[in-house]
Amino acid sequence: MAKITYTTHDNKIYTINVKNGLSVMEGAVQNDVPGIDADCGGGMACATCHVYIKENWLDKLPAKEDGEEDMLDMAFEPKINSRLSCQLIVSDALEGLEVTIPSKQS
Amino acid sequence: MIKTDVLIIGAGPTGLFCAHQLGLIGLKSEIVDNLSKVGGQCIELYPDKPIYDIPAIPECTGEELTNNLLEQIKPFNIKFHLNDRVEEVKKNQNRWSVVTVNKKEFNVSSIVIAGGVGSFEPRKFSIKECEKFEGKSIFYSIKDKNIFNNKTVTIFGGGDTALDWAIELSNNCKINLVHRRDEFSGAQASVEKIKKLHSVGKINLYTKFQLMLIKGSQNIDSIIIKHDNETTKEIKTDYLLGFFGLIMQLGPILNWGLNLNKKTIKVNTENFETNQSGIFAIGDICSYPGKLKLILSGFHEGALAARGCFKYARPEEKLKFEFTTTSKLAKERLGIK
């Protein structure tokens, strides 16, 4: 279990305890956090679960696979700290992770 | 006005197989799709990627799957309406009237929505000013490449479309290629060609840059791009091309009075009918408890929806359950002698 904080583009804050094994995307979708669409259902085949990671977390997360970076090319306003939240699997190590949700997914 | 039994929206694998199932039970169908080719996500997103979970096919690519489905529905002479999108759906007595963007009209007894996650549209630049230049100096697809001759064209993107056009247009124009990172997702051969063209001065490369600002009133004068390290650069350019892939928009489907759940349409699992009688939804676009977004689920859903369409198309008849191995009628419809 890890406590994850999702901040929407209009600064609404959702802090959720997400079970280990779920993705950061699932943690949001299952708890009705707005702004994460996840059209493809977590298959790294779209870029609609795009989030920005708080800087101090960037190098603590597992590295991106090639496919993730390719999908991020198609995301709305990608930045250096962009990730697809479906590719971040929750474990105790993610306790305290903070992500921000972009103003749009598509 | 086209009068037929069923209009299928979406020419992905699910829509194609549903046309097959409709054909087998003797119903006529036509298919509308927003893209220029048949195959849906299989062709648009992963034509070369192998798929491993189609029953009885250990491995096939998105393109092979599409071609096999087209072969399978050949006996039914299905008519396709590509590059078109259904705009309006209206009840017309006990049938449905449908109008597309290209003003084609259909009169059908039922509609099967096999629309995936909506219609594909190009992802655009996120800067608001881009809208006023769209279609004049900003393009997301190319219809006539000659308009760029002897001009400066700035291409954004790192996939095959961006690279292919950069290479092609570098013959007759000055090219700037801008991408948000150093790596390109396009084919390796194209990446090498780009680097070669860059080294001989035919293409200017700006990586780790993104669009920040556009200058110009009627036409674009120049743009300002921003590096990851926050430094900026101004480039003179006549045209901007954005190739950021496609996004999926539900579009007009939202206005058809369907029971929606986020971006999906709620259906019953008996025949995949929606809350509107005579409108069915199958494949990725439908939702019900336990829904799996797999191609094989779409096939199953299509088979049942086809039977659901029968009662609207042939209200006086009773549908007899038959196997293709033994049914004379099915074989006749398949053109097997």
Task: From the structure above, extract its key features.
heterodimer, A: 106 residues, alpha+beta, Ubiquitin-like (UB roll), five-stranded mixed β-sheet, 2 helices, 5 strands, globular, B: 337 residues, alpha/beta, FAD/NAD(P)-binding domain, 2 domains, seven-stranded mixed β-sheet, five-stranded parallel β-sheet, 8 helices, 22 strands, 23% helix
Describe the 3D structure.
Chain A is an alpha+beta fold and 106 residues long. Chain A has helices at 24-29, 66-72; strands at 2-7, 13-18, 50-53, 82-84, 98-100. Helices cover 12% and strands 21% of the residues of chain A. In chain A, a hairpin with a 5-residue loop joins strand 1 and strand 2 (13-18). Chain A is globular and about 30 Å long. In chain A, 38% of the residues are buried. With 337 residues, chain B is an alpha/beta fold. In chain B, the strands form six sheets. In chain B, strands 1, 2, 5, 6, 7, 8 and 21 form a seven-stranded mixed beta sheet that branches. Chain B is elongated and about 70 Å long. The model of chain B has no long low-confidence stretch (mean pLDDT 95). The chains are: A alpha+beta (106), B alpha/beta (337). Chains A and B meet through helix 2 of A and strand 18 of B.
Outline:
The complex is a heterodimer of chains A (106) and B (337). Chain A is an alpha+beta fold and 106 residues long.
Radius of gyration of chain B: 24 Å
| Overall tally of domains of chain A | 1
Task: Give the overall form of chain A.
Answer: globular
Q: What fraction of the residues of chain A are assigned to beta strands by DSSP?
A: 15-25%
The CATH topology annotation of the largest domain in chain B reads as: FAD/NAD(P)-binding domain
Number of strands of chain B: 22
Low-confidence stretches of chain B: none
Describe the main β-sheet of chain B briefly. Answer: 7 strands, mixed
How many domain modules of chain B? 2
- Helix and strand composition category of chain A: alpha+beta
- Mean pLDDT figure of chain B: 95
The CA-CA distance between the termini of chain A, in Å, is 30 Å
Spell out the CATH superfamily of chain A. Answer: Beta-grasp domain
How do the strands line up in the largest sheet of chain A? Answer: 2-1-5-3-4
Reading the helices and strands of chain A in chain order gives EEHEHEE
